[in-house]
Amino acid sequence: MGTANMQREQKRLETIMPYELRAVFDEQDIEKTWTYLYDTFHFNIKKWKELYAIELENSPRVLTKMEVFARFGKANFERVLEHILVRQAHSQTWFRLMQYIVRDKLREKKKEAYQERSYRRNT
């Protein structure tokens, strides 16, 4: 494999999820997202889950379920959500939805980080 091909393969395997989301989003949050998509937008979750399962099965093993879900949603849902929500293209609508699903976890993580910084300053 040539250097250019190796670089392309490495780029393909890099995470697309924002760091703060990657730190807290887990498998339970995938289920919460499916529920939200059904409850809010009436997506055919049964069919979408089947398609996601195929995507997961065919994805490189180094990618987590959460990473594959993020890529799957970005590829399949982002444009639709941007259209429904009347958002500009490339507004990270899919990641914002994922962040909304884990908003309590994100708040808690920020709170912990703030407390840790405060503790370090006071010692």
Describe the structure.
The protein is an all-alpha fold. The chain has one domain (18-122). Helices cover 75% and strands 0% of the residues. It is globular, with a radius of gyration of 17 Å.
- End-to-end separation: 52 Å
Write down the domain tally. Answer: 1
Spatial extent as radius of gyration? 17 Å
What's the overall average pLDDT, rounded? 89
Number of helices: 8
Helix content: over 70%
Q: Provide the low-confidence segments as ranges.
A: none
Would you spell out the secondary-structure blueprint of this structure?
Blueprint: H1 3-13, H2 19-22, H3 27-41, H4 45-58, H5 65-76, H6 78-84, H7 93-101, H8 103-122
List descriptors:
about 120 residues, mainly alpha, globular
Question: How would you summarize what this structure contains?
Answer:
The protein has eight helices and no strands.
